[in-house]
């Protein structure tokens, strides 16, 4: 097995009464160290199920998931939970409203025994500064922060355990366009600074274009297409990928021409 993270012939089947629902169907791909792999698709495409299996929330029904060449157990060890962290879509629901920002950031330091106990408050302050927030924010409650500030705290919490891979599940979809751009810029800077690896879950290809190295396109639990971001946008091979790209808001003449060409190709194929 190659890559920092490797999925081989992974499927996930859920049982609903007498029915079986195949949410992910025989999927294989690698996530290379230091890259940002975007997993894109519409609602129900299986992308969030993939994220939950990577995190160990769901075990695969079939196939294997390996970390640095070793198959991950269904029940993850503490070292695996430390290495693979999550940033959720809604930062308000992901942060405990009864804990201060500082308490939320200190928790992973305590759980994983990171740093001296007496110096963990200093580490919390440095984490906040690293994501562009003043250290004194550690005394605030999540409710006192804006949406963008809360998402920065959620990112800081994912970094607190000194993780190697961060799963970002629609991390900017709840933010307005300006705040979204600032958070994406922060994620890119942190990736360069820390050598992080991202799995970026989203339905928004306009976001993917600005942050991802490669794109995996999912539809109905199946991996339809996988390639570099440049190749996916310049010459998508699958009809579903072409439809997704054709729906991206157009901002340049070149994109107008691409959208027209993709739509003409699909109409001709139909």
Automatic annotation (TrEMBL):
GO terms for biological process: transmembrane transport. Keywords: ATP-binding, Nucleotide-binding, Transport. SUPFAM superfamilies: P-loop containing nucleoside triphosphate hydrolases. Residues 5-245 form the ABC transporter domain. InterPro entries: AAA+_ATPase (IPR003593), ABC_transp_ATP-bind (IPR050319), ABC_transporter-like_ATP-bd (IPR003439), ABC_transporter-like_CS (IPR017871), P-loop_NTPase (IPR027417). It comes from the Bacteria. The keyword Aminoacyl-tRNA synthetase does not apply. GO terms for molecular function: ATP binding; ATP hydrolysis activity. PROSITE patterns: ABC_TRANSPORTER_1, ABC_TRANSPORTER_2. It holds the Pfam family ABC_tran. PANTHER family: ABC TRANSPORTER, ATP-BINDING PROTEIN, TRANSPORT ATP-BINDING PROTEIN. Belongs to the ABC transporter superfamily. This is ATP-binding cassette domain-containing protein.
């Amino acid at each position: 097995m190659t890559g920092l993270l490797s999925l081989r012939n992974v499927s996930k089947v859920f049982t609903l009464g007498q029915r079986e629902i195949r949410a992910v169907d025989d999927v294989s791909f690698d996530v290379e160290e230091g890259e940002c792999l975007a997993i894109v698709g519409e609602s129900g495409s299986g992308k969030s199920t993939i994220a939950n299996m990577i995190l160990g929330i769901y075990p695969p029904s079939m196939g294997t998931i390996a970390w640095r060449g070793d198959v991950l157990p269904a029940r993850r060890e503490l070292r695996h939970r430390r290495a693979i962290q999550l940033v959720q879509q809604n930062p308000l629901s992901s942060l405990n409203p009864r804990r201060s920002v500082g308490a939320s950031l200190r928790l992973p330091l305590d759980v994983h025994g990171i740093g001296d106990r007496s110096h963990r408050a200093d580490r919390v302050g440095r984490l906040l500064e690293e994501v562009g927030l003043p250290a004194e924010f550690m005394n605030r409650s999540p409710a006192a922060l804006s949406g963008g500030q809360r998402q920065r705290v959620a990112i800081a919490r994912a970094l607190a355990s000194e993780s190697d891979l961060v799963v970002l599940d629609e991390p900017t979809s709840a933010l307005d366009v300006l705040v979204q751009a600032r958070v994406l810029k922060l994620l890119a800077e942190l990736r360069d600074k820390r050598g992080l690896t991202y799995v970026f879950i989203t339905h928004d290809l306009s976001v993917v274009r600005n942050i991802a190295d490669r794109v995996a396109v999912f539809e109905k639990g199946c991996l339809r297409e996988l390639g570099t971001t440049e190749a996916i946008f310049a010459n998508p091979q699958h009809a579903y990928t072409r439809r997704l790209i054709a729906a991206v808001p157009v901002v340049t003449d070149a994109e107008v021409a691409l959208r027209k060409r993709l739509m003409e190709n699909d109409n001709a194929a139909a």
